[in-house]
Amino acid sequence: MKLQHVLVMGASGGIGLAMTKKIAAEPELKTLILCAAHASSSKLLQELKRECDEKNIHCLIIDVDITNENSLAALVTCITPSVTALDLVFNAAGLLHHDALLPEKTITQISANAMQQIFAVNAFGPILLAKALWPWLRTKQTTVFASLSARVGSIEDNRLGGWYSYRAAKSAQNQFLKTMAIELARINPAGIVLALHPGTTDTMLSRPYQAGVAAEKLFTPDFVAERLLELILHAKPEDTGSFIAWDGNRIPW
Description:
Layout: E1 5-9, H1 14-24, E2 31-36, H2 43-54, E3 58-63, H3 69-79, E4 88-91, H4 112-132, H5 134-137, E5 143-148, H6 164-187, E6 191-197, H7 221-233, E7 242-245
Parallel strand pairs: 1-2, 1-4, 2-3, 4-5, 5-6, 6-7
Helix pairs in contact: 1-7, 4-6
């Protein structure tokens, strides 16, 4: 698979930024669309754009709120004049915690507000992004829609409990992507939809929860991006609708 036209959502985050740098180095790349809630204020993305400009790669940096349909519609309006194809849509947007939001250790910590925030980004966001970009995904060409899920979203693999909202939101994302894969296969047999587990990665998302992670199981964003991009580049239509870990192993739903 050749990457010529690519859109990355969550491009300014740990894995998203690492993936963006890997993609920018692809020899066939012609178009790179970098999206995040505050993409335009990212100095690293601006620096990457300058590097793309020097290589005659058409690079767009667009502020997009993945949870907001109006924002996603604005993204479509922005890219429609110049983007006629997308070989890859990679979604790295995710939310586990912020100052006023922590993963639940017990059912008594569950709140509707927290669940709504977690589901908005981790469950609803990816499928709303896919809906917005559907015209580019349904074309009769090889195209990959890959979104970061998490092993904790596996119902069968859940043996520790806790993290109610995050687990359930990732499970919901998996169901959305599996259902989308079935529909896309009917329209575009060359279309591929993947839910990807990156492993525990040294980013802001996981940093408060790394204490119990063995050193050899805590990965750098660069390592994760390299492994995930390799999976994407070698994915085949028969892989569509799969839940795959960074090492290529399938994860039970």
